[in-house]
Amino acid sequence: MNKPVAIFDMDGTLINSMRFWKNLAVEYLSSKGVKEIPGNLLERIKPMTMSESAALFQQEFGLTGDPEAEMNAMMEEHYRNDIPLKSGVQEYLQLLHSRGVRMCVASATAEHLMEACLCRLGIRHYFAFLLSCETVGAGKRSPLVYHASAERLGANPGEIAVYEDALYALQTAKAAGYYVVGVYDDSAAGNWQTIRETADEIIVNWEETV
Q1: Element (H or E) spanning 192, and its range?
Q2: Could you read off the pLDDT of 43-60 as tens digits, one per residue?
Q3: Are 129 and 90 in contact (CB under 8 A)?
Q4: Which residues make Cβ contacts (< 8 Å) with residue 197, sequence separation at least 6?
Q5: Are 150 and 169 in contact (CB under 8 A)?
Q6: CA 134 to the chain's CA centroid
Q7: C-beta neighbour count of 150 within 10 angstroms
Q8: Can you point out the beta strands (E) in the chain?
């Protein structure tokens, strides 16, 4: 990558958090004493939002309280305490930093959780700022979070490399004129061939890039 500016996604790109999201429903239901989860339930919630999943759990299991808030609290604990950095990421960021590349993080995750997680993992100082899709009011099917990051970094799309593990996010950034780097994550393994075809550059293993 030879661009002077870089925008990094966080989940699935810099950190190994996707398995925590994948296991969240089981973790939450187990905490509520649900030991037997119907075989098709986990498939049913895959396309659902957190709110929709929470409503389904209340309906299926007669749960009280606020499932959405409780699941968010569980994920917050993981961001603050045990989600790990992908191997080789710190060394890669240090390499870009030594070259004078200006960097930020643009993620769907809330900024206070990004801050807590990246500080704990010792890489926060590499980034000029952290920007959430929540803040700009649009997810990554829109290029708004990338454009807002570019504006704050004082760069044009053609000067910026966007690092993403999700195919739809890569496609959004690519269509908006950014140089895109596809990062492998097990959660997107089914899309990997298309990611390879879409990206300007790919990273299968961060350790192999430094």
Answers
A1: helix 192-198
A2: 777 666 678 888 888 888
A3: no
A4: none
A5: no
A6: 13
A7: 24
A8: 5-8, 102-107, 130-132, 160-164, 179-183, 201-203
